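Ticket #4471: complex job returned nothing on first submit. Input attached below:
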Amino acid sequence: MSDRGGVVAAATGAEALSTELPVGRSAGWWGMVMFVATEATLFACLLGSYFYLRFQYGPTWPPAGIEAPKLLTPLVMTAVLVPSSLPVVWAERGIRQGQRWRLQSGLAATMVLGVTFLALQASEYAEKLTQFTMTTDAYGSLFYLITGFHGLHVMVGLTMIGWLLAASLRGGSFGSHRHERVRNAAMYWHFVDLVWVAILFTIYLSPRL
Amino acid sequence: MSLPVEKTAGLTMGAARDARRRGLPRRLPVLATLSGPLLLAGCAGDAPSALNPGGAGATRVAGLWWLLFWISVAVFAEVMAVLAWALVFRRGNARVRHGQPLRFVTIAGAGLPFVILVVVYGVGLRDLAALGDGPGPDAPTVEVTGHKWWWEVRYPGASGATANEIHIPVGERVKVRLRTDDVLHSFWVPQLMPKTDLIAGETRETWLRAERPGSYRGQCAEYCGTQHAHMAFLVVAQPRTDFDAWLARLDAPAREPRTDAERRGRQAFVQGTCAACHAVRGTGAAGRVGPDLSNVGSRWSLGAGAVPNDAGHLGGWIANAQTVKPGNAMPPQPVDAAELPDLIAYLRSLE
Amino acid sequence: MSTTTTPPPGVSAQDLARLAEHWAERPSLRGWFSTVDHKRIGRRYLVTAGFFFVLAGLSALVMRTQLARPEAGVVSPQEYNQLFSMHGTAMIFLFATPMLFGFGNFLVPLMIGSRDMAFPRLNAFGYWVFLFAGLFMWASLPFGAAPNNGWFAYAPLNQEQHNPGLHMDVYALGLLFLGISTTAASINFIVTALKLRAPGMSLNRVPLFVWAIVATAFMVIFALPALNADNLMLFLDRRFGTHFFDPSAGGNVLLWQHLFWIFGHPDVYIIVMPALGIVSAVLPAFTRRGVVGYPLIVLSIVSISIISFGVWVHHMFATGLPQLSYSFFSAASTIITIPSGIQIFAWLATMLLGRLVLRVPLLFVIGFVVTFVLGGFTGAMFAVTAFDQQVTDSYFVVAHFHYVLIGGAVFPMLAGIYYWLPKITGRMYHERLGRWAFWLVFAGMHVTFFPMHLYGLFGMPRRVYTYRSEPGWDGWNLVSTLGSYLLAVGLLLVLVGVVHAVRRGRPAPPDPWEGDSLEWSTASPPEPYNFPALPRVHSLHPAWDERTAESLGAGATADRILSDGRRTLVTSELDAHPERAVQMPESTLKPLVLAGALLIFFTSMLLAWYPAAAVAALAVVATIAVWLWPPRRPDEELGVTG
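Support reply: We reran it on our side without changes. The output follows.
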């Protein structure tokens, strides 16, 4: 896309100075990588705490009185959330080529999937809360903390996506030369997706192993 | 300056280390300034000093300490010599040299320390294994429960309980089973054994072995709240026969009152608010909130080391323990001025 | 693509005028609150952390006064317990790390030849959050509601049931709040060092101080989440009835300790590492040569930051975990002393080969070597499990970590204050005053803390508000107390020296020490744009290197002057090849607004005004959304095709 010869010249040319031509990784990209790294560590600590408490607890897990989580709802949730990364990828590729319609429709599709995920989570909570709450025992505390904390992240991700969509609909925000915010928000969304897979394994699948 | 007390014959390794400890300062007079304060350990008399061990576990650790200490002295001398050299010869007009003595840095900074640390690690593992090598299954056992801020002490087989005072037979390994009723505490008798924490929801085990009869001061070593400072206890090591006699008394009812004052005191104790929290064996008082007082008259202190155990302090404690040990669980007692001397007399008689 | 005109060599007066126009911040009240200049922010970090240091130090003096004699009644147990908890918490979280981040903020852009941090507004935000979180925590003390469970706040004593009142809520929320600042600053340091280095400053020419700051920042990124998770669960347990640390409902009290120390041990190095970086930065000027073994030191910095994540259990050697785990963690804790050994001997070798210039900064470096080595010995002793079990939680460990933290962090900071004071304030300090301060601080430190080894070994546990008279305790405690007054006088002299320099000091030249790194290649204090022309770096010691010097003067070219806007250069991560010039943000009040909204959020959470907290949370989201809202640009500039 750009002429890589004469790096200094490329870096200081009129066009390079006024746009975000992809010459190397930007500061914003690295910033988001580091932010995601620290967030991922936070989730690792929470999931680690889950396993620590589980293996310190004893043979029956979940503790007596709480049945092992059912798989149907979480699997549907996975089927909704994980593919929601695809429209983001498609949208990001689109705006790199200057296709604003792809950005907008991709983000909209992701929003629909994300909101569906949260609705499914709400319905799962409605069912679970009749069985146990976060004050029932340590298992309940872990379940609601981890899934709730992830749900919060989905909400933050959706806020970012909605924000991008709003900025894009206003016009004059993104194009083939300026799409760093799209890329960073996309990275965050992919992260939120990936964390869900780890949660699916920890909360829903591991008690059945 | 007197050096630590004699050792029994069983403690050959400790004795050998003691010899080294006495010998080295004389051989290295230059270091006397450094080690001088540490030798005050000897002057510490009956201080609960880890350097004045009275039992197998602490003796081992004291030996380990002197090994670590002398290694540190040697390496510190090396570093100071290099620094002094630089300060003396590398000032003023010294010509700057631009070499990169990586070999010197690697050998002095990594190679030598590595060798020393491997040795130290090996010795440390050996001593860790020794500390972990507890008594057999039929060894005498003490059950210690930590409370904010006192120690409940029970013996399997004896119905009674005592507080802040652990009696053990001398020369035997005694198993100590540790539980806590509330927050974390740590069981530490510096002269006998390193620490073992009391973990809420779990049981921990350690052991004690005193080589000579006597009292060894212990104290809670994990911060446990307002009165962490006053959560001391005493380990009393006595010959086997004395211990057995003491344990038998712990199983029997408390001493009967002999005077009228004591009898009135007992009545006040059993019928008043005391019995709600405290127990005295053989009476109606069976409270489990505070310490069992069946032998309170002979204990070394009141309030787990807060004040000496005498009539004046006891009276003050009963009237308002909050001024003596602020924050403890015992509220001020509405005791009649007339009743108080009787109560004191009764409790003092419980030996 | 190529530029059509060749720029003239050197920086013209016109360039300077334009740079000043683009970078200057008007000296108004609004300007004071809205600045994003890393130098002003760095100075604020230093001053604010210094203020918290004074508060925490005064707490310590009260404690030492109480402990001067057995059974003293200077403070009540409740007061003492709050004082020692605030002392530790503030020294670790509100003084040590922010102070070093203050040095980092001021120095990193200067040392790498940049005009600001990568994210200047985030930088300002980080400062405000630090300030507010610090005030949030200290404000609890006059209300008698300060944290009272030690700086590591073990469960279950941190639970509502055992510790009612706001004390531990202040702790949990305060540290979560502060964590935002520390994380933001760390991300900023990493990205700045990766992307904003001057052309030619490839990784093997990065100053050791910058290496240290970056390694520290990486440790923060991976260690701090453990503390945040811990405090999140603590707050939920206390306020909303969860059971993470409640063994009667499936929780576990040791979970707190594991998570805390997974953070806590790296945190020791988070504090010490940048300070060691200061030592490496100060030494060249006072030994007249570069530090010996640059690659070895870099290697040891990197290995410490990795190994430090594998040693946390040595803080739990008395909790009764399996012996096998003790053997492993004992080995790891033993090994981690070796990289520190390498650094010590690299510095010693530097002194042996160079020519010592005995000014105050070097005195503090020598004081550092003596003290830190002693702390290192006792540190290695704590890796030996059996010995650790005997002396942990006694005054021996108090002695140990004050040797490490005062020796390993405060002495280098003081060396750094005297060394960079001319650069930061543009004034020289008073040498004799500085020497007095050094000797008083050095003597005070050892008189205070050396005896603690002794009464620790004599069986005195830490964190006791009073003690019974015991042979070997009384006298040495009195000595410690007298030493602490001496130390306080010495530190007061440091403060007097700084104030004296600012008020009366003679003006400092750009390079009073003939230092080796780039901050000495520009004015004292630096102009808002740092460098009239960004340097082209040709060696590890750019300020001693003629070609680099030339690139700043006669050899300056327009692509490094960048006077047509508020710009700096972005370069590649490894080799620092120029990639492009980027526009830097203007001053703004948004960081302050965002930090203020967070302060309202955390205060509302503390006081259980949850609707107010919800409103504040919305304000946070809205502020961020406005902050990052893209400016409207024409489609042609954006490159929109459909």
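The longest helix of chain A spans residues 138-170. Closing as resolved unless it happens again.
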